[in-house]
Amino acid sequence: CALGWLRLDGNWVAALQAYKTSSGGLLGGTGVGDVTFALAAPAIVALGFRLYEQRYLLKRNIIPMLGGSAITAVLSVAFTALASKLTRLPSELGLSLVTRFVTLPMAVPIVESVGANLGIAALAVCLQGILGATFGTKLLDMVGVRNTIARGVAMGGTSHALGTASVASSEPKISPPSAVTFLLSGSFMVAFMQVTFIRNFVIALFA
């Protein structure tokens, strides 16, 4: 999309139209986005098979995954608020960074509920996912985290879908707990932010 924007003299509308044409055919269109979206469904189905294969492991460890997901949702807000205060970030910018640990579709309603900037939030989510996918397992190795569930919870809780996808081939055993964790963590945060006094408290942290 960015390359298309450059080639089309900065015309974002034309770049997006070229990215996903929705013109029909086997892949739904001829743009790069059409191909990407066409491949998304098989990828989700493949992850579903992996989840089913490890269903007993996931059932036995549902409490650690629930706990890790809830803690991630709370600490992500706390650490972001602290960092924003220390660096004196504007309130809107700080609030826009709160959802960086949450996959983008779940981040959108949170951003809207707190009045943050969706563009900045989307960028933060993408950067967090890329950083987690690139360095997450290396950091876990450095600190000696070997347990499958612990590694999965850490990857899913901090780098959501991108982190989960990054370990699907290199460490397939941790991708199911990672997937469950990033879904639970995002769900917890969305649910928390729908409670008025919690939402107001979070907004006040960045005031």
Automatic annotation (TrEMBL):
Membrane-spanning parts: 26-49, 61-83, 114-136, 148-168, 180-206
Q: Name one GO cellular component term.
A: membrane
Q: Does the keyword Membrane apply?
A: yes
* Record localization: Membrane
Provenance organism:
Hanusia phi
UniProt keyword terms in alphabetical order: Membrane, Transmembrane, Transmembrane helix
The answer to whether the entry has keyword Membrane is yes
Superkingdom of source: Eukaryota
Q: How does it sit in the membrane?
A: Multi-pass membrane protein
Protein known as: LrgB family protein
Q: Which Pfam families match?
A: LrgB
